[in-house]
Amino acid sequence: MKGVIFSELVRWVEEAFSPAVADAMIVGAAVASDGVYTNVGSYPHEEALALIGALSELTQKPVPDLAHSYGYWLSARFVALYPEMFDGYTDAISFLRDVDANHHREVKKLYPDARTPSVVAVVDGQELVVSYASHRPFADVAHGLIRGYIHHFDAALEVVRDETAQGPHAARFVLRPLPADG
Fold this sequence. Notes:
The chain is of the alpha+beta class. The chain has helices at 3-16, 19-29, 45-59, 63-81, 92-97, 99-110, 139-152; strands at 118-124, 127-133, 157-161, 170-177. Helix 1 crosses helix 2 (19-29) and helix 1 (3-16) packs across helix 4.
């Protein structure tokens, strides 16, 4: 897995909790890298799982909640780090619909050895159905990313995770317009 995910994870923990918590997370996870990541490096995804697990033990917050919060925060970092990927998009629906076709292709240009998840988004009436599948168990991070992109585009959408498709490797999200206030 690309190092940018790891380096940003450590940054998020430093910002959301503290540098001391980030250090304790790295020590507690006992990862082979000792928490030293470069954005272009590649690291086993098990290290990310160990880091989030150690953070959960330190904060007493459930792993899924932490992963979701990290994904939400990470969406803003992706906007800052890779603004060209957002050029030409004015709404969350168009952006999310193009994740697999355009954005993951761009990721592979930057990082040819990257193994991106499958993100298939289909418009169904007024809803967008986003199906996520990965060889890595990061569906909670994907949920947070989707919510973050909705926020970035200031979209009046709610996202509901389809509980029948629940799992760490795959998930289905339904985005629909927020109900109008009556």
